[in-house]
Hints:
mainly alpha; 2 domains
Amino acid sequence: MKTLFTTIAILTVTLGFSQSKFESAILRGKQMINDADTVTAMQNAVNYFQRIAQKETTEWLPWYYQAQIICFMASSNSDLDAKENQLNKALELIEAGKKIEKNAELLALEGFVQMLRVSVDPATRGQKLSPVVFGLYNQALAIDPQNPRARLFLGQFQYGTAQFFGTGFEEACVNVKKAYDIFENQPSEPTIYPSWGMGSARAALANCNQ
């Protein structure tokens, strides 16, 4: 009996240490994303999360962060062919993450990728991809109505669509404001889960308040 309790105690400590090590690795990677100000630094962060994904095969977060970084790289890429390749790669990474766990964060990021694909050629892609984008954001919000990224991206896409068609911004700005409020009320402690987007929410809200 004593041996059994000792074994359980050792397993508990080991599992706790393992989880702590994973969390430390993810937090370090998030800091790499925050500090990355060059394409090389961003690619280093992608490679870092790729190594974690290869080791932690039951975790979706390393796939998510690879895709997030590649989205950032694509958003500032003026080479449209390279941009398209990056966005397709981001979709592959998201699909890999969804095989582990289909959740609101991955669906919201998938919508963000498709939104970037629309922005490459709105006149051609808008009609085909807009329902896909809206569908992904609505799926994400059905899972988690308080997900600020899904709410923000939905508002941003509604705003862009309203600009394109010359319609009102009311519904878009309602979603932007909701997203901003959710961000405002989030805990400030570091977390391994996605926490980005407040800067974009602030800028989007400023556009709504003009």
